[in-house]
Amino acid sequence: MKLTSGILFAFAAAQDVEEVERLSISYPGNKPPGYKPTGYNAKPTSYNDKPSYKPNYSGGANYASGYDDPHFMISSESQPAICFDFKPEADVEFTLLADGSTGLLIEAHSSLKLKHETHKHIIMDEIKFTSPLGRVIAFDLDGVHLFGSEENASDRHPFTGVQTFGDISFVTHTDPHGNHQRTHVEVGDAVFMVRGNARKESMAVAVVEPTGLSQESTGIIGQFLRENAYTVDETDNLHAFVNVAGQRIEAEKKKFHQQLSCWVVEEDAMLDIINKN
Questions:
Q1: Are 163 and 156 in contact (CB under 8 A)?
Q2: What is the C-alpha separation between 210 and 205, in angstroms, rounded?
Q3: pLDDT per residue over 198-255, tens digit each?
Q4: Residue 186's domain spans which residues?
Q5: Of all helices (H) and strands (E), which one includes residue 230?
Q6: Domain count, the chain
Q7: Is 19 among the domain residues?
Q8: For 45-55, how does the pLDDT look when each residue is reduced to its tens digit (9 = 90+)?
Q9: pLDDT at residue 65, as a whole number
């Protein structure tokens, strides 16, 4: 997938701010996976016949998004989405994705915001990519910042707006006030989107095309991009077990930030998995 084909421009043109705010950027083509468990008996035939949940899955690509304060959503073409919160300390960098095969690294920086005197709010205020060739591109509300080379980014393509910086290609959009709004980034065959939220003074990132990311990927979202990274065993409409990294943890289907419904895993349980991977 190369930018000269217009693929990255197509990704950029397909996104808008409302879709980003609704967390739909974690799905390919802005459409949630067509998840419907086969084998689910929604209408019992007798009083003692309980609904059965036996989904049949056949694998598929995974997608991941991290937002604002921060919270994360993992989605799959073969599994229902799972969601969880993650609250780092202030003023630290933490790894979102580290691909041990290609060398791609994506990190976030945390910052403390005070909503009022009694409420401390940790947000992601910077998203930083380090490419396999060592090029560094960082995003915050002020825009795009380039490091790792004396060369500058190429001029914007007159039609697509795409720029290249070593082995990174990107196309950026700003709001009417000049604040960074969103950027699509392509490294190899993988495509990501970085979004700024001026109101919350925070950043978000999503994997919108995982092609080319290896099975050696680690990090808060990277570990979920491996093949068969997780499965969801539903016990009823509102409760399930999530199987991930050799552990089986409880999940509850409920509203999660801007997402109307998601299988939500408790932060402490997910933090234990993150620390081990």
A1: yes
A2: 13
A3: 888 899 999 999 999 999 999 999 999 998 999 999 999 999 999 999 999 999 999 9
A4: 3-42+49-55+63-227
A5: strand 230-234
A6: 1
A7: yes
A8: 433 333 333 33
A9: 96
Tokens of 81: 């989405």
Q: Which amino acid is at 130?
A: T
Q: Is the pLDDT of residue 269 over 50?
A: yes
- Taking the whole predicted model, whether its pTM rises above 0.85 is answered as no
Residue 232 lies in a domain: no
Structure tokens at 59: 């694998």
Cα–Cα distance list, 17 to 21, 25, 171, 182, 268 (Å): 6, 10, 15, 9, 31
Query: Residue 93, by phi and psi: left (phi above 0), alpha (psi -120 to 50) or beta?
Result: beta
| Structure tokens, 186 | 């392509």
Those residues with Cβ within 8 angstroms of residue 204's Cβ, 6 or more apart along the chain or in another chain = 20, 65, 66, 67, 68, 124, 127, 194, 195, 196, 197
Write down the pLDDT at residue 176: 85
